[in-house]
Amino acid sequence: MSGNERISRLLKELMQRPGNDQCADCGMPDPSWGSCSLGVFICVQCSGIHRNIPEIGMKVKSLSLSRWEDQEVEFMTENGNKLMKHKYEATVPVYYYRPTHKDCQVLREQWIRAKYERKEFTEEMRKWTYEEGTRDGMLMKRGRDNGQFLSRRFVLSENEGTLKYYIKFDAKEPKAVIKVDSINAAFQPEKIGNPNGLQITYLKDYSTRNIFLYHESGKEIVDWFNSIRAVQLNRLKVAFPVASDTELMPKLTRNFLKEGYMEKTGPRDAFAKGEAFLGHRDQGYSAQPGLPAGTHCNGAWQHGITIVTPERSFLFTCETETEQKDWLKHFNDVINIQMSPQEYSMEAQFRRKY
Q1: pLDDT of residue 352
Q2: Other CB atoms closer than 10 Å to residue 233's CB: what's the count?
Q3: CATH pick for 134-251 out of 2.40.240.50, 3.40.250.10, 2.30.29.30, 1.10.10.60
Q4: Do residues 191 and 142 touch, judged by C-beta distance below 8 A?
Q5: Which of 61, 28, 62, 58 is nearest to 43 (CA)?
Q6: Smaller CB count within 10 Å for the chain: N or C?
Q7: How far is CA 241 from each of CA 94, 175, 237, 343, rounded to the nearest angstrom?
Q8: Could you say which architecture CATH assigns to the domain 3-117?
Q9: Which of 133, 127, 137 is nearest to 162 (CA)?
Q10: CATH number listed for the domain at residues 263-352
Q11: pLDDT by residue (tens digit) across 26-75?
Q12: SS3 54
């Protein structure tokens, strides 16, 4: 057996060890690259991020295309994903968002830099910037009328439970005061047109509003994101002192399950703002394929969905059967989740309004 064949066999055996069969950073199955400086197996997307970090990127190799030295394989054998996770992720705060392979570049890059470049999670009792209870800085915000991005001052306060923004840095009164408890923050780079684009969704007067932001620094915008999550978790712990972190974590910022287009059909008097509350099926909510008999479709899309709520039904149509099934899956995923006390309150507010 040649040296190359022997090394290739050893690498394949290493890949079978627990933890090595997924990317050490994003969890992508079957990683095809390895970091000889860290001793971890990573996917091709994360390998590109590693190569851009001088401290760790000099020795990133393809498992199948690169030439490996014996000492490099030995180093990978001595370390591996499981051991290195214990080292570099030892103290990751529970609220810190751990990206997956489905997340955008800025989240994955800052996760990798936080772990290996800044070594944020290797020191015990470290004080993270996300846990200061307040954050004050300038972010680029998209104007509602003209779509232009302008610099605005944002202030996050755990004590007040608010996120405020000001038109000018020295302005005395905020332009808006947003309750942190109502915020959902999700990265939307394509939608916003910037790789660091962050969408803040919140409730005001029982209607959904959106703010579109970015910062030129990937670290800064991800720090804002995790600071919001930290504040939300701390406030939830106060509101629900007996609840565990596992129970509270799903209430923090979440990625949008699905975003796209459906045509609305049926009565025209519903939800001028285009909103509907989805509660638990035990409260009378359901999502079903098809439309009631005799329903007239407004357009060419024929694949119907009926959403039933305690107050009324909402009728939609999708362009394809595939889209219909995908929307129904996500609707029913939400409807199967038990509601929190906050969501029961929100449901009551929606029903009073509409």
Answers
A1: 61
A2: 18
A3: 2.30.29.30
A4: no
A5: 28
A6: N
A7: 16, 33, 5, 18
A8: Orthogonal Bundle (1.10)
A9: 133
A10: 2.30.29.30
A11: 999 999 999 999 999 999 999 999 999 988 767 899 988 888 889 999 99
A12: helix
At residue 142, φ and ψ (nearest 5 deg) are -80, 130
Q: How far apart are CA 297 and CA 184, in angstroms?
A: 33
Cβ atoms within 10 Å of 29's Cβ, excluding its own: 9
**Residue type, position 205, single letter:** D
pLDDT digits (tens, 9 = 90+) for 203-246: 887 778 899 999 999 999 999 999 999 999 999 999 889 989 98
Burial 137-169 (b: 16+ CB within 10 A, else e): eebbbbeeeeeebeebbbbbebeebbbbbbeee
pTM: 0.81
**Secondary structure (3-state) at 62:** strand
**pLDDT band for position 270 (50/70/90)?**
very low
Both tokens of 338, joined, read 């038990």
In Å, how far are 176, 253, 275, 347 from 342, measured between CA atoms? 22, 15, 18, 9
For the chain, where do the domains classified as CATH 1.10.220.150 start and end? Answer: 3-117
CATH 2.30.29.30 residue window(s) in the chain: 134-251, 263-352
**How do 286-289 and 303-308 pair as beta strands?**
antiparallel
Alpha helix segments (H runs only) across 32-69? 44-51, 54-57
Which residues make beta-bridge pairs with 113?
none
- The torsion region of residue 141 among left (phi > 0), alpha (psi -120 to 50) and beta comes to beta
DSSP 196-214: T-EEEEEEETTEEEEEEEE
DSSP 8-state secondary structure symbol assigned to residue 29: B
Where are the extended beta strands (E) located within the chain?
A: 33-35, 40-42, 60-62, 134-142, 149-157, 162-166, 176-179, 184-187, 198-204, 207-214, 263-265, 286-289, 303-308, 313-318
Residues with Cβ within 8 Å of residue 31, at least 6 apart in sequence:
15, 20, 21, 22, 23, 24, 41, 42, 43, 63
